[in-house]
Structures are given as structure tokens and as C-alpha cells.
């Protein structure tokens, strides 16, 4: 009988470490001996605190964690880790970690979580999966994941007969830019980004907070560009760290970025400043683009953006003067106002006019190692085309749209009857999803959450599976495209604490109960890594010693002069004008739509990242919590005087739909304008199991009840919300 999950909020409190097992912090961390004077061991790893996945070395002393440092052979980090990477040991030592499998049960008319053995947890999950298959079909399961371990559950579900999966990093982060650049150039920007800033003579940042988000390689290459006196142009309504390093700061009116991009195109085309040879050789659609941008001169843009026409022209001239070593950065988190694919299309087109794609100082050609996959049988074809059923309105999306999968789990007619959630805290990740998630939780026959921490999503689960941290497990080889192809190894530096297990082991155990062993033929996942490494002339033994292995490039990093290039677009050219978009009923050229007007007494809610945390994933990390225990709301002095607020006061924020946040500290600063406030994302947790982070700071995601959905690829535009102040 399906359990009603109306008590899921209360249940999140039962996940606290003290609820079942006594927390035991590592006594070695409090050693009186000087660090490094005991028996020291070094183990290669790949950081899992953010997606950049820098390679490093974990040092332990007498078996206890000491420090993590970067691997100097790693092209991602060049031997330097960021704040979060060096704080990775806090994930291992966190007293609030999930410690054993938990099963939702009903006792005395109320719901609770019961500690169970791994065998009980797997038997329950396998039984529910088989029941779903018998009643509805094998293809009625879905996966939402963030992190390398999710690939093992993706393999499991595909072997079972369901291919439905999504990563919130697509629809809630970088999806618009990948779709936009693929429509324009035939391929996306990649991850890490293929930006060649170390050789740029001009870098344009549009709402991209490099220096605060601490994407390691990006920060280092931008610093190199600045040290070489590259011109830095920052477009941001807030005086960000990057703005403080810039020759030009453009404090744009929020939501009007497209108007500026069109005006820049207008100047480049009408003044003949674009790269004529590059455009003639490699692009199609210049004639249509030229006609399209004629109305959008700097004088028109001034009325929309608030930026002086001379400033718009001066920055366009600066870009042209440094081209093709000019990079208009595509950004990373780009789900803003609902027109995000078209805004990213405008950025892609602007780069094409400057001739930067495939050119030194613009976008380089990435390479990764040609690494064979471990041989396993092909999974069966699913019985239905789940995308046609779940997200037919987004045929141009190359992958699953996370919020559409959640919607397809909700209600009596829901398509999906089972959902696996790996490493992603949906209530803090997908805006305005909470009501749908509550309905889905009551509708599903099976909801499995795999995580290291008792975040909000665990309170919705039927079964909680505790994963060991990245310092305690093997994962797939890091084989990310980069300037230099390389492989990096993550291996256990410590034995898993408590009863936690790696994702590969969980998926293999479930496969055995479902008669799917042939898809997981290895005894230990290390066997697969060794097999793969031997195919490329290395071995697990070698990688355990060196951590990172570089391989020679096989292709040039940049286009050569006059080189004939065929792009992976329908025309074989860079498509300034997109016939594909036209065929699907979308504008073939980017169009400007004015943002919603600010209600009287309200301020646009802008948000971003801080250098101490990876969104909400690390706010309970005891080492990183010390660096930044709470967020603050940035308020312009003029607004502060109007509301009689002082620096350090606490307020609550109320959005346009009446949602009120937890209290948050005020930061009065000229670095944000009078029309908007700014917050660091990831705070304001409600899961009581997070004893450091719960109730601290305000949750900006909870205030994002107005969502502008991108009509091309389904991204959730989150900057359409406004807040006012309630004195705490």
C-alpha cells in the first residue's frame, strides 16, 4: 500500500545523524602533534565539490585526513585548488552525513524513517521496480541526477528498459547556451568551457561572475588576461568582483541584455567593424542579420538599458580593435528571463561577427582522450518515446528537462511511477517545484534518493541510500575535453565511514536482484578502470601513482588561415540566421522583449554565487561553513534610507506572490543599484538534519515563484521575481 507523504517536512528532521547513530568526529583532526610529522600518505583524487572536477592529492597523516592540494599536471587546475576544493575534507568529516539506509514506514498512524540493512533496502526497491513493470511497463521509471555516480543508475534504468533521465544542470543552468551555440556553430561550449581567455586581448562578461563563482580554470585564465592588460568589459547591474577589474563597467538595467547585444551588432555591421573575411568564408545569414539589427542603434538601446550611446559604441569599438582575440563570454548559469536561448544566440552571433570561434583568444577546439567504454551489452530499446510523451513542446532539447520529468511523476495519470534522485536537492534546485514535487511524492509508487547528506529532498523518499563521499570511492575516469587531453583518477583515500557505499556498488547490487547482472559484469569497479586504462597505454597501478596522465593532441587547437571548415549545422556554416529555429516556429534571429516592470515598492531579485560554497551543496560543510555561515541581501543606500535599514539589520523578504523568506542580514552597498537586490544562492535550508545550515540565511529559490520558461529548450528563467522588505 502506498504511503501518504504529507509528513515529509517533519521526516527530514529524522535524518539527522544523531537520530540513529552517534556521530563520531575524527579524533586525528585534533592531534597535538605538528602536521606532517606522522606517517603521511598521498592519494590521487578528483574534487567533487563542483563540476569543474579538478585533480588533486589527498594527504592523510596516520590514517586521518590532513589536506587536499592540486595536481600540477592537471590542465583543469594547474596545481591550484579553489577555496571549496581545499575544504573538501569537510564533506568527509561532516557529522551530519547520512550513515545507513533508511526506509519510510508507518508506525502508530504516523510516518517515520526506519534504519534498515542494505539487503532490506535493495529488496524493497527491486520489488517496487518489478511491480511497476508488471502494472505499467518497464519504461515508467526516471532518473534525475547531478554527479558522476548518477551514470551507474542511468545504466541500471536503461538495462531495466527505461531511458528517461535529466540533469538539472541543463534546464536550470547552462542548457540555453549549449542549445544556442549548437544551433549557431553545430556544437556547444563544453564543460569546462572552451574559452581561451589566457590569450584574449578583450574579454566581455555579461552577468558572468568569474572571481566569485571560482570556476578554477576560468579564474586563472581571466587573471592571466588581466595581467597581460587585456581590455575587460563587464555588463552587470551589480558592481561585481569582475567589474572592479574592468576598463568598462556597464551597469545595465536588469533584463535588457538582449537590447545591448543587438546594439553592439548594429555598430559592428553598420560601421564595417566585423571580420569580413571570416564572416564571408564561414557564415550564412549576414544579409538577414543586417536588416534585422537596423532599428537597434545605441540611441534606441539607451532607452531600454540605461547605458549611454557613447559607452555602447566605445565598447563595440574596443571589441573590434582586439578581434579575433576578443571573447564575448557565454556565461554558465544563463537561465534568466525566459528568452535565454535567444540571448545566448545573440552572444554566439556577436562572437561570429568578431571571428572568435576557433581562433586564438576566442574559443579553442577541445580534445579528450579516445577512451573505450568497458564492454557490456546494449540496453533494450524502451517501449515508448518518453520525450514525445513528457516534453513534446521541446523537440530541440537534446536531453531531459528536469521539471518536466517531475511534472510527469505527479497525479493519478502520471507517466512515471518510479523516480530515482541522485545527488541533487530538487526543492533548492528547480524553482517553484515544491507543490508539484509534493504531489509527485504522493503519486509515485517508488521514490529513491541517493545522497551523502540529509538535504530537503531526502524527506520525500521511500528509501534513502547513503553514498560515501568522493574521498572514499572510485568513480569513472575524468575525461573532460580540454586544451590538452588528459585522464584523472579518483580513488579512495579512506575507507567509507559508517555504512555508506559507492553508487557503482548500489547499482550492481540492484542489478543482481533484477537479473541484470550482465550489465554490471565487474567484481569491483576498479577492474573497469584498469581495463580502460590499459586500452590507452596506461594502467590503474600507474594512475594510482601519478593521478593525472596527459596525452598528445591529434588536431590543431585553432583554425588555420583560410582553412576550409564544415560546421555540424544543416548548412555546414555558422548560422547567423537559423532555418532550424524557423522550421520549429521560433524566431530565426534574436528578438528583444522588454522585461516585466518592477511593481511599486518592490525590487528585482538578483542572485549569484559566493567563493566559499557550491550553491546549497556545501553550506553544511563544517570547514566551508566557517568561511561563510550565512548569506546577506545587498541593498542600495538610497533604498536602505527609504526603509530605514542599517548595515547588519535583519529583514525578511516578501515576493510578488506573498511568499516570505526566513530572516536575512542586510548589507548596505553602492555595489547594487536602487532597482534590484542581490543574494548568494544556497542558504535557508529547512532540513533539520543539516545542523549547521538549517534556518541560517534566506532561501532565494523559495522566492522564485514566477518562472519564465524558455520556449526553445525548457530552461527555467529565474530572474522574473521581485521582493520587498518585512522587518524581522
Features:
single chain, 24 helices, 26 strands, six-stranded mixed β-barrel, Barwin-like endoglucanases, Dimethylsulfoxide Reductase, domain 2, 728 residues, alpha/beta, seven-stranded mixed beta sheet
Task: Please outline the helices and strands.
Blueprint: H1 8-14, E1 40-46, E2 55-61, E3 64-70, H2 83-86, H3 89-93, E4 102-107, E5 110-115, H4 118-135, E6 141-145, H5 150-160, E7 164-166, H6 168-185, E8 202-206, H7 216-227, E9 231-235, H8 241-244, E10 248-250, H9 257-270, H10 276-282, E11 283-284, H11 286-293, H12 298-305, H13 309-322, E12 326-328, H14 340-354, H15 386-390, H16 402-407, E13 418-422, H17 426-429, H18 434-443, E14 446-451, E15 463-466, E16 486-488, H19 503-513, H20 525-535, H21 540-546, E17 548-550, E18 574-575, H22 579-583, E19 603-608, H23 622-627, E20 632-635, H24 637-643, E21 650-655, E22 664-668, E23 676-680, E24 708-709, E25 716-717, E26 722-727
Parallel strand pairs: 6-7, 6-13, 8-9, 8-12, 9-10, 11-18, 13-14, 14-15, 19-23, 20-22
Antiparallel strand pairs: 1-2, 2-3, 4-5, 4-15, 16-17, 19-26, 20-23, 21-22, 21-26, 24-25
Helix pairs in contact: 4-19, 5-19, 6-14, 9-12, 9-13, 9-14, 12-13
Notes on the structure:
The protein is α/β, with parallel strands linked by helices and 728 residues long. Among the domains are: 218 residues, Dimethylsulfoxide Reductase, domain 2 (3-Layer(aba) Sandwich), CATH 3.40.228; 125 residues, Barwin-like endoglucanases (Beta Barrel). The chain is built from 24 helices and 26 strands. It has a seven-stranded mixed β-sheet with strand order 5-4-15-14-13-6-7, with helices on both faces. Strands 19-23-20-22-21-26 form a six-stranded mixed β-barrel. A four-stranded parallel β-sheet has the order 10-9-8-12, sandwiched between helices. A hairpin with a 6-residue loop joins strand 24 and strand 25. Helix 4 crosses helix 19, helix 6 runs parallel beside helix 14 and helix 9 runs parallel beside helix 14. The longest helix has 18 residues. The chain is globular and about 70 Å long.
